[in-house]
What we know:
Blueprint (H helix, E strand, L loop, with lengths): L4 H23 E7 L11 E6 L5 E2 L4 E4 L2 E4 L5 E2 L3 E6 L12 H5 L17 E3 L9 E7 L2 E8 L9 E3 L11 E3 L24 E5 L2 E3 L6 E6 L4 E9 L4 E9 L5 E4 L12 E11 L3 E11 L1
Parallel strand pairs: 7-8, 14-20
Antiparallel strand pairs: 1-2, 1-11, 2-7, 3-6, 4-5, 4-9, 9-10, 11-12, 13-15, 15-18, 16-17, 16-19, 19-20
Amino acid sequence: MRIHLSVIIALLIMSIFFAGNRDLEASVTLTEVMANEPGKYVYLEWIEVYNGGPDFADLTGWFLIEDADTNAIPDDSVIPPGKFAILSRHSISEDTSEMSFERYWGDSSGVWGDTPSEQKFPLIQVKMTLKNSEGKIMLYHQNDSISGFSWARDAGDGRSFEKQDIDGGDLLSNWAPSSATNGCTPGRGPGTVIVNSGNRFSLELDPEVVFLKSEQSTRISCSIPKDSELTLRLYDLNGQLLRTIYDKESNLPSEYIFDCRDGDGNLLRGGLYIIYGKVEGSKSQEIKKILVVAGQ
Length: 296
């Protein structure tokens, strides 16, 4: 049997193309699902996706399957290598009376990507209607199921389900309600729990200078000794308590995104503030203080 050279070349090109697609598919995985949107707000469901490969992941031709519904992911949606992306039900709203992902988890400007914190991951709007207490979702491409997750309970109001080990596969045992204090970690991977070991108490802030008009958030990193509890509070320079972040808690995320707001939800004014941390154990206690500079 004689095979024309052009046919052989076409077959080789197709094999390379599909092999590349398989590599891409293997690198993309679901990592977090917000099915029960916070409080009174609707349309705030979202799904976090991670690209663990060395190349950009182009999701053109990909679908999100939700129970019996199949919805296309917009063409030219791209996830950079080693980065997360958010698929959201309602991404952006310029109407200040209407809640959206950007308005709730971003900087409320009505534009995505105009601040450093928003530039860390792409935001992609996809049709979805996730149910609080049960559901099943799947990423689908070229007749293949890429990654999926199903749940049969409610994670809690404003709390997401997170994949505990990004490389651990889609087994149900690899998923759990988020351990993050604010209920979720969109675009940041799992909210890992502190391993309380040794005798060291550390407390760090990054960045220490926060420009409220652009960033509006800073990351608090901490670790505490074994069998101890952490109290974390925000004070002004007059010693007035503005907010209690942790109150004698031991099972904590290793990072906390502080949104530069007081206990009533009001954005801080420009000035100097103190993050006060106190660790108490059975035999000792330790106090650390960090100065926060809030610039306008």
